[in-house]
């Protein structure tokens, strides 16, 4: 009897431990949400700002994929962003545009896609042509300071 | 002057011979563990004393650690209106560092010290010698099953601590501060990587389990066969394995997350 309850407790312990491991894998990290079936597209940006690998790719605020790699094109020194898009979103037109946006004023950066109107759809390995670089706060501020310093006649009012 | 030299030399010699004894013990222990695998009943019995009896303290501490992380994380994040990242902060802290390290420290205090005291007392009362007289190898019968049990129990305990901690953070984040459940879990799932974070945490906990059980068993086996010797050995187990955990954690973190 005593041996039996001991073995039951060990069984409970092993089950709980494995349940905890499974929870860490599925609930805490997102291994369960099928990132394996996806296709890869690339986009070239002049400047990616603070974009990170694993940043989300969104259409209309809904996450459809994530950034998998960021590298530099050796010929024109543009930043090439590789993204994995989930397979169920396989109907993005080939004239889809990509821009790097910021969540909130100082939040993390993500890629926003604006679907175009073409009949042909993007496939794995395609490159997006219409891209818009990240807005850099430093550049904006310095432009604003310069236009202020010039006496406030020229393009000062068109900025605001 | 010669006294100082002698002191230095004795220290080095003692350190070297002790390290050597540790490594020799490791070989015999691994051989004994391999042979102990054919006796699963002994391992189950040790899993009870090493794992099941440690589980309660791990679960309770995990819950409180998670709740403290929830409180502290929220107080800091709300300054940057980044409370949506609370889940990510809590999960990364637990999965990468606190889960393995805290579980290993508790394991050393709860199970490691018990192992040392048990084996030290077996040696003091000459049970180990009696086994050898009966041609039973204590490495197979006593040390091996305990080592295997420690190796199995430690990663499971660390995973439990992390999982319960994440839930504790959720209780505070959602229950007290009203962080949206979808935001809490979503930020966590976006930011936590299965291989980079979870798997590395599990590897850490396996290494810690190995080290703590090794130290505890060696100190017990090596204890001076007096009541004072057993008490000193128990203290050494907790001190040595705690230092090994914290130092080893630094090295492992630098190797795993330093991009090497």
Would you mind describing this structure in some detail?
The complex is a heterodimer of chains A (160) and B (260). Chain A has 160 residues and is an alpha/beta fold. Chain A has helices spanning 2-28, 137-149, 156-159, and strands spanning 38-45, 56-59, 62-72, 79-86, 97-102, 109-114, 127-128, 130-132. In chain A, strands 7-1-4-3-2-6-5-8 form an 8-stranded mixed sheet, with no helix packed on it. With 260 residues, chain B is an all-alpha fold. Chain B is elongated, with a radius of gyration of 21 Å. The termini of chain B are far apart. The A-B interface holds A 6-7, 9-10, 12-14, 16-21, 23-25, 27-31, 33, 54, 56, 63, 104, 106-107 and B 44-45, 47-48, 51-52, 55, 80-82, 91, 95, 152-153, 155-157, 159-160, 162-164, 166, 185, 188-194, 197-198, 201-202.
Topology pattern of chain B, helix = H, strand = E: HHHHHHHH
Relative strand content of chain A: 25-35%
pLDDT < 50 runs, ≥5 residues of chain B: none
Structural class of chain A: alpha/beta
Give a count of the beta strands of chain B, DSSP E runs of length 2 or more: 0
Main beta sheet of chain B: strand number and arrangement? none
Average pLDDT level of chain A:
81
Low-confidence stretches of chain A: 156-160
What does the oligomeric state look like here? heterodimer
Tell me about the largest β-sheet of chain A: 8 strands, mixed
Q: How far is the first residue's CA from the last residue's CA of chain B?
A: 46 Å
Structural class label of chain B: mainly alpha
Which value, in Å, is the CA radius of gyration of chain B? 21 Å
For the secondary structure, the number of strands of chain A is 8
Fraction of residues of chain A in helices?
A: 25-40%
